[in-house]
Amino acid sequence: MEHQRYDRRRQARIRARRRRQIRRRLMMAGVFFLLAALGVSMICVRAYRKAQSDRERENVISALAQTYEKFTESVSGEKAEDGREFAEWTVENCSAGEYGKLSAIAEEGELTERDIYDTLGMTMHVLEDRRSGLLDDADTAAQSGIYFAGGPEDESGKVPEAGSDPARITVAGDLCFAEDGFVLDHYDEVNDLEQCISPEILDITRASDIFFLNHEYAISDRGEPLAGKYYTFRAKPERMKLLEEMGTDLVSLANNHVYDYGSEAMIDTMDLLDEAGIPYVGGGRNIEEAEKPAYFIVNGMKIGFVGASKAEKTRYTPAAEEDSPGILEAYDTTEFNRVIAEASQECDYLIAYIHWGPEDETQYAEYQTEEGREFLESGADIVVGGHPHVLQGIEYIDGSPVVYSMGDFWFNDETKYTGLLNLDITYDGLQEMSFVPCLQTNYTTQYISDKDEQREMFDYLEGLSPNISVDDSGVITEQK
């Protein structure tokens, strides 16, 4: 009996142990199947998300490629074949936040050039230059005639908030330095630029994103004055510091005095400008340099400048040729129109400077109107002139301005109106054009601060112009 009871207890323990083993196996199997199911589910989720991400990426790339192709076709008339390459590069080089914004816009519909600028802080021209490696550093950019407004710290071409501020371009008229007489004699007496040019004016030129003027003299120790020429202008190399002190960012050499002391002095002028980091247009060591535009990256936009001259009745200043220095001439406008057309395809806003017009006459010539229209039709967004030594009028032609002459900025002892032209440029073009009223007198250039005198000057400018009005703050608008 005792033996039988032991066997029953033993069998019960065995059965209990088997039941526990079975439960454990069932639990393990359940856990295994649960984990397997979770794994399959995660794989499916990842696959779904990847597929969704791939579709999203393809959608963004497709939208970017289409925008790029439309952009190239609108610029050159031909649709680019590398739209997808551009799109893939853009996606790889934008931040996660920027990509998210592009994706959201592409999901809703067409992705426009403006959408890209608002999201990435760069226009298509700037993006393309970055993709091509032209903006890798300041030296590389300069080889292609591209410069960064504000200095090397802005080399990326990006801005913290796209389009938050317009680009400010300030344009002055003719600047002449000559060691024998004129404004340098006065400067040497006072040895203070702010006693020659009002501090209010210098504050504007230094603060502007780009300050541009006409460099109407040679700067060199070499050369002899051109035989038979009545006025010849040359400054010593150390005078370059005055240009820098003004905050000069760019000059035009397209005029009738940069060659006054021959080829050596003109080459010295360009060498010294290069050393000072001040680009130039309209003149060069050869025709390729003379035709070369200068571009500035400002607030993610690419702003271009070109220059040419047709100022001399007797031609003392030679045209640049394949192997000799000189200026870009525009006596026949064909070549300048070609330069304008090609430059306009490479930038967002183009300023064409032209040295032209009758000297000492406030009334611009009929040919200036005709050629101004040509330059606008070729692709310039604004035409700015110099050479008459006095202000001439401003005319809107088909909605775009031609500033016939900015007069003398700081040139001699004559008393005459002059000023600064401020251009505020946004993605959409010229947001505002305004005039800073100044007076050149007694070898100085003075800011006109009195409100009544300002109004007199603005009325004078309106009287020279066929279809503008100038308000009390100097803002110029078209009168239709």
Based on the model shown, name its key terms.
21 strands, ten-stranded mixed beta sheet, 42% helix, alpha/beta
Contiguous runs where pLDDT drops below 50 for at least 5 residues: 47-52, 151-163
The proportion of residues forming helix, as a percent range, comes to 40-55%
What name does the CATH topology of the largest domain carry? Purple Acid Phosphatase, chain A, domain 2
Determine the oligomeric state from the structure: single chain
Mean pLDDT: 90
How does the helix and strand content classify structurally?
Answer: alpha/beta
Count of discrete domains: 2
What CATH architecture label of the largest domain applies? Answer: 4-Layer Sandwich
Count of helical stretches: 14
